[in-house]
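dumping this here before i forget
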Amino acid sequence: MDYYIKCITEKYVDFEGRASRSEFWYFVLFNFIAAFVINIIGAILSNVIGVAAYLGALYSLATLVPNIAVAARRLHDTGRSGWWQLIGFIPLVGAIVLLIFFIQDSSFERNQYGPNPKGSGISV
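structure:
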């Protein structure tokens, strides 16, 4: 949960540096859970309040930039530019390639995007 809060508050528009696998995947997990809960609440309240149907869309819009930023930092951690996210626009193949990039371990040494977020430079 700390990674999610950190990405939403401190690193909202931070496209510099590197994000470890755990930072990225915990952010994805808690973002998915939050979106799921907000969509359920919006569906329940949409019968009462018409605006509530748009809660999920508003949440998605609010977290668009942090999603792109944490993905860029995760790609930096594997030694790739954040622009590699654009490969996701290629149907099916792009998503598979991005998933492989996101799953890969950190590059152990310092790269052009900064030091290893694991600190020691040794993979555990």
